[in-house]
């Protein structure tokens, strides 16, 4: 059984861009991985945008009971729009470009493998997302995981 | 009120404002009193991608026709913007510092780059294309781009 079938509706859900072959999409996914694997593994979980697009019922159900943070790689904002389309609550949407404007020194490049700037940008983005995860959990009265 | 020529290529809509002139890279120039306002065409901004940063050469800088007057960094590329006239940069759009994405949102209006005090606009303007000529050129370029998709 895939891990996405075990989603916890008390955790904050992170939905990153699925733009494959795009630098900013890669930054969004790396940031999401850092949040759920390193920074807030007990209070955040990852949902792949592709499963929402494919109409996976379990994944859509997860969104109904969870606060969601989306991370978009470009202004098309597919993650934010898809979560809303599925009836989820987008507590906050991050756009990689907006974050990059705040960290101009971290110029991202590369696709399969990000350059150092891209990795640092992903880390900076992940830390901002983690703060939002904390805030959302505080708003729920400290319940998480 | 600005009028536009418009074409659809693949799923993209491109507009060319008819009240200004263009160089062959898609940089527009529009007289504004004694000065000339410059900016990027809709096609140039769409082809380049979402703008991250726009750095215009400082006020007081003298530029020649075709010389780099700004550098635009987008999510795809970093491009030098060639000045469509000779003159002195006298004002930079303040939005370029704080919200350069306005280039994407309103390339012919709020997304202007700079005002230039021309040194010989009469001569330079003859080296630029009118909207119809640029529209035809842009359409060919857009169709070539679409073939790569």
Could you tell me the number of beta strands of chain A? 4
Q: If helices are DSSP runs of H or I spanning 4 or more residues, what is the number of helices of chain A?
A: 6
Number of helical stretches of at least 4 residues of chain B: 5
**Elements of chain B, N to C (H/E):** EEEEEHEEEEEHHEHH
Could you name the ranges of chain B where pLDDT drops below 50 across 5 or more consecutive residues?
none
How many E-type strands of chain B? 11
How confident overall, as mean pLDDT of chain B? Answer: 96
Question: Largest sheet of chain B, order of strands side by side?
Answer: 3-4-5-11-10-7
- How far the N terminus sits from the C terminus of chain B, by CA atoms, comes to 35 Å
What is the percent of helical residues of chain A?
40-55%
Strand content of chain B: 35-45%
Q: Please state the structural category of chain A.
A: alpha/beta
Structural class of chain B: alpha+beta
Which word captures the global form of chain A? globular
Order the strands across the largest sheet of chain A as they lie in space. Answer: 2-1-3-4
Low-confidence segments of chain A? none
């Amino acid at each position: 059984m895939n891990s996405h079938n075990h989603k916890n509706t008390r955790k904050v859900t992170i939905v990153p861009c699925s733009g494959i072959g795009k630098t900013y999409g890669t930054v969004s996914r790396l940031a999401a991985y850092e949040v759920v694997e390193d920074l807030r593994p007990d209070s955040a979980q990852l949902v792949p945008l592709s499963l929402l697009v494919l109409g996976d019922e379990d994944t859509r159900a997860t969104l109904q009971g969870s606060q969601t943070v989306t991370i978009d790689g470009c202004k098309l904002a597919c993650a934010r729009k898809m979560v809303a389309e599925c009836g989820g609550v987008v507590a906050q949407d991050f756009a990689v470009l907006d974050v990059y404007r705040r960290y101009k020194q971290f110029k991202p490049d590369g696709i399969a493998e990000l350059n150092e700037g891209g990795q640092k940008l992903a880390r900076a983005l992940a830390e901002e997302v983690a703060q939002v995860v904390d805030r959302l959990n505080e708003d729920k009265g400290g319940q998480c995981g | 009120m600005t009028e536009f020529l418009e074409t659809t290529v693949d799923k993209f809509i491109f507009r060319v404002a008819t009240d200004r002139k263009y160089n062959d890279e898609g940089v527009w120039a529009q007289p504004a009193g004694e000065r000339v306002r410059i900016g990027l065409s809709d096609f140039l901004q769409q082809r380049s991608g979402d703008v991250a940063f726009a750095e215009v050469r400082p006020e007081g800088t003298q530029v020649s026709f075709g010389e780099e007057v700004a550098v635009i960094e987008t999510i795809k590329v970093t491009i030098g913007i060639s000045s469509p006239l000779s003159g002195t940069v006298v004002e930079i759009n303040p939005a370029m510092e704080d919200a350069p994405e306005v280039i994407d949102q309103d390339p012919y209006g709020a997304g202007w780059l700079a005002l230039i005090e021309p040194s010989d606009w009469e001569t330079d303007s003859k080296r630029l294309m009118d909207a119809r000529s640029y529209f035809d050129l842009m359409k060919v370029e857009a169709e070539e781009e679409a073939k790569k998709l």
